[in-house]
């Protein structure tokens, strides 16, 4: 039994601040109960290439997407525009295999380390973060790896 088992979900992450790597944690379902999903039931999820540290993208997960990701080891998000689960790569083939998942100290942001197949961005680029604001003038930092029309099976007009 974990010393954290008797805590209310709202108190769990505060109590984990003093936890040690050797401490037993509550069951996964109790941790998921304590996740601080926003008013829409979503949590931001940052996808990072596991072996290089490259930040690939940020998307949203609801509890169902998070549970599916953990269960299948294939990353699943929640599409706010379509209001449904979005299994990364289901239309493009550019999947993300889960290597690890970690919540931040507040339980309100998720980091998923993945093995990315091809580009992560719908523009065909490896990363969604290609508009640099660190230079004057701002600059595009990468070329698409794949034409988005090809990536999503759309024919050119």
Strand order of the largest sheet: 2-1-6-5
Determine the structural class based on helices, strands and strand pairing: alpha+beta
Shape verdict: elongated
Low-confidence stretches: none
What order do the SSEs take from the amino end to the carboxyl end, as H and E?
HHEEHEEEEEEH
Fraction in beta strands: 25-35%
What's the CATH class label of the largest domain?
A: Alpha Beta
**What is the CATH topology of the largest domain?**
Ubiquitin-like (UB roll)
- What proportion of the residues is helical, as a percent range? 10-25%
Please tally the β strands and state the result.
8
Number of domains: 2
Q: Kindly, what is the distance between the CA atoms of the first and last residues, rounded to a whole number of angstroms?
A: 62 Å
Cofactor: Mg(2+); Zn(2+)
Main location: cytoplasm
EC number: 3.5.4.19
Function: Catalyzes the hydrolysis of the adenine ring of phosphoribosyl-AMP.
């Amino acid at each position: 039994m974990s010393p954290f088992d008797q805590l209310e979900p709202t108190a769990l992450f505060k109590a984990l601040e003093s936890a040690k790597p050797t401490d037993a944690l509550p069951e996964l379902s109790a941790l998921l109960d304590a996740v601080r999903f926003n008013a829409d039931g979503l949590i931001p999820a940052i996808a990072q290439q596991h072996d290089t540290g490259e930040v690939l993208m940020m998307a949203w997960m609801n509890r169902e997407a998070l549970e599916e990701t953990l269960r299948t080891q294939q990353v699943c998000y929640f599409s706010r525009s379509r209001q449904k689960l979005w299994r990364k790569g289901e239309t493009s083939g550019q999947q993300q295999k889960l290597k690890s998942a970690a919540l931040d100290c507040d339980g309100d942001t998720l980091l998923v380390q993945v093995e990315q197949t091809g580009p992560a961005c719908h523009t065909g680029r490896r990363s969604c973060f290609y508009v640099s604001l660190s230079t004057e003038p701002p600059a595009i930092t990468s070329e698409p790896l794949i034409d988005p029309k090809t990536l999503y099976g759309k024919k050119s007009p």
